[in-house]
């Protein structure tokens, strides 16, 4: 083997072998998922700010209604309908955040007593069941919103109802995707963030 001018030892691998070794080495999770981590952070930020904005608006609206009704004997005619829509949005955004963080309600009492492999199988089956239920709810709510659009339903004095109801299929579809992602992580042996209730 020819020696390099810097007196490399004969035991060091050649450049070609070193390149092959680096090419065969799997990427780290951070290198493989760097772009996904950025997307996840952006989605979490949007979700959090939506929850804060809707909850803040609901609190301000409720307080304004109380003050207007009790002290001035007036109120906004559309406020009760908007409050109901805010509760719908908060419930769905909260469910989305809970499924994202693994804080949704689970039936894990029996799974704690299972051997590790069966515990993984139970977790994957539970995540896939959650994905199936969420996907079914996304489909049904998509049809509901489509019917609402087709019939020209309006809320809040003329706003098309489907604009405000569109959160339902979107949230359920995102939850289904999160459950599928959780099942895949469990199959790969990765840790899934989960906080026991």
Overview features:
197 residues; 7 helices; mainly alpha; 70% helix
Could you characterize the architecture of this molecule?
The protein is mainly α. It starts with 14 loop residues before the first helix and ends in a 9-residue tail after the last helix. Helix content is 70%, strand content 2%.
Brief summary:
The protein is mainly α and 197 residues long. 70% of the residues lie in helices and 2% in strands.
Query: Please, what is the average pLDDT?
Result: 82
Computed CA radius of gyration, to the nearest angstrom: 26 Å
Shape designation? elongated
| Total number of distinct structural domains | 1
Largest sheet: 2 strands, antiparallel
Q: Report the count of strand segments.
A: 2
Low-confidence parts, pLDDT < 50 over ≥5 residues? 26-31
Strand content: under 5%
In helices, the fraction of residues equals over 70%
Order of helices and strands: HHHHHEEHH
Counting helices, strands and paired strands, the structural category is: mainly alpha
Number of helices: 7
Strand order in space, largest sheet: 1-2
Distance between the termini: 64 Å
